Amino acid sequence: MREPEISVVIPVCERYDDVTALYLEYQTGVARVTTAYEFVFVLDGPHSDVLQALHRLVARGERITIIETTRAFGEATALTIGFEHVSGGTVMTLPAYFQIEALEIQRLVRALDGADVVVGHRWPRAGGWFESLRRRIFHGILGWVTHLHFHDLGCGARAMTRPVLAELQLYGDQHRFLPVLADRRGFRVRELDVRQSSRDACNRAYTPKDYARGFLDIFTVFFLVRFTKKPLRFFGMLGASMFGAGGLVLLYLVVQRLWNDQSLADRPALLLASLAVVFGLQLFALGLLGELIIFTHARDVKDYAVDRVIHYPAPDELRPTHSDADQLAAR
Description:
This protein has twelve helices and seven strands. A seven-stranded mixed beta sheet has the order 3-2-1-4-6-5-7, with helices on both faces.
């Protein structure tokens, strides 16, 4: 049996559709690219119905790897586990539910020509005006803090080359920001418009807790992308701003006390300004401590990826062989 050229990782978490129908549809799309493929299903927690369906597919001879976790760890962990068990040169992630048309898989893989990561953008996108507004706000804020402009990070259809897996570390809910993290590592990332599946009709109701988590995730990615190796720039900027504002207010109060003979007692501004100065110094010290940690472990921290290495021939390899020397002498 040929080694797989394409490995498809499908994390099965909270939301999933009929696995048998889903696999057959995905298989149709992948088979248009190559017949050497494998599917890796990662069951995040107990899913007995999905497990039985997958066992029936394996019994039919389908090339499927099934991975079960002891409990639900989240989609990012499920993807990380799946990446550890793939063997294809091209790796795809697909959701465990109908999200894009299967024929778009071929376009995603072919778009890797000249790119390291290709992410799907469902267009035209179904949904009401509120859902569209929510997506625009989310991606607008993300684009503002990262200077990267994506339109559908919620799409789980992605294609990437094998080297990308070794450089990415996913945890928490950072699977949605995989393209952002890949770009940070220096990989070439592009977004491709794909047709949304007609069966992708999940109208999820988001709670205030979900919005709070999304905001914190954006803040986390903002810090990881911009200040991972420069913590003093972030904390120092905040600390200096608070220290400067508090210092100016204290100076104003001192001037009023010395020249206008105004009492400093019972003035809330004095307490607030003092707190701002102290808190600003603490933030600055925190950033300086982070810089010391980064400096100590700088050799172990890698935030780049090498595209390719071209080895020049050694000096001995440049010397003419006996046959070459004979030909030169004959001339």
